[in-house]
Amino acid sequence: MTLPADVARCPGDQAEGQWREGCDDCLRRTSPPADPERVLMMAPPTIVVFECEARIAPANVAIKRLP
Fold first, then answer.
1. What angle do CA 53, 59, 23 make, to 5 degrees?
2. Which of 20, 30, 48, 64 would staple 13 via disulfide (CB 3.0–4.6 Å)?
């Protein structure tokens, strides 16, 4: 699935060769950019308590847009 161009991508976060929980299949990391020339990027959150707020699960079809 390809996310719309206005949804920021994230490089994910790894520690000791392992993806942080949720990064392995997050669409922000795995979805190819719609336009490689214009890609919005975001940094992974510094602290994740239970689950990353920015994560977009592969089964999540409806994408929330910020106002």
1. 45
2. 20
Which stretches of the chain score pLDDT less than 50? none
Domain boundaries along the sequence of the chain: 1-60
Structure tokens at 47: 């602290």
Which runs of E-coded beta strand occur in the chain?
14-15, 18-19
Amino acid at residue number 65: R
First to last CA, the chain: 23
DSSP secondary structure, 32-48, as one string: PPSSTTS--B-PPPS--
Task: Identify the residue whose tokens are 């079809």.
Answer: 61
CA distance 26 to 31: 8
- Residues forming a β-bridge with 14: 19
